[in-house]
Each structure stands twice: as C-alpha cells, then as structure tokens.
Amino acid sequence: MAGVTNWPFRSLCRRYGAGLYVSEMITARPLVEGNAKTLKLAGFGAEESPRSLQIYGVDPHYVG
Fold first, then answer.
1. CB hemisphere CA count around 11 (13 angstroms)
2. Confidence (pLDDT) at 2
3. How many folded domains does the chain comprise?
4. Contact residues for 29 (Cβ-Cβ < 8 A; gap 6+)
5. CA distance 47 to 16
6. Domain span holding position 35
C-alpha cells in the first residue's frame, strides 16, 4: 500500500480507533543497506502500536 499507509493516514486511523498500524510497502534491499529515505518510510510514531512492516524483495540475500 505504497503511498497510502503513510504517517498522515495512520494518524487518521489512530483518531478513529485503529487496532493495528501498517507501514507502506518497503523494499528489503535499501532497508538492509540503511537508506535514509527507506528508513524514514519504515518509521512509526511512539503512539502507533501494535505495528506491522510490509517488506518485499526478490533477492534472497536481502529478503531471507
């Protein structure tokens, strides 16, 4: 759900009583490599709990 489950959307969900907060789709490789933009997308606010991170990729080195 890239571009949909971003922080502003999750903030609205929290306002209306969401029980789970889900990140945008995050590519595994830049996440593992510590890419700043990807790490920002993967971030959650302290009040967003429980949380779920959507990770995808095709290279077993980064996904497995």
1. 4
2. 65
3. 1
4. 57, 59, 62
5. 14
6. 7-63
Cα 57 from Cα 22, distance rounded (Å): 18
52: exposed, middle or buried (Cβ count in 10 Å: 0-12, 13-18, 19+): exposed
Residue 18 covered by a domain? yes
Q: Give 30-42 as a DSSP string.
A: HHHTT-HHHHHHT
CA angle 18/27/34 to nearest 5° reads 100
Percentage of residues in the chain with pLDDT exceeding 70?
Answer: 97
- Residue 2 included in any domain: no
Task: Answer whether 0.85 is exceeded by the pTM.
Answer: no
Alpha carbons 9 and 4: distance in angstroms, whole number: 7
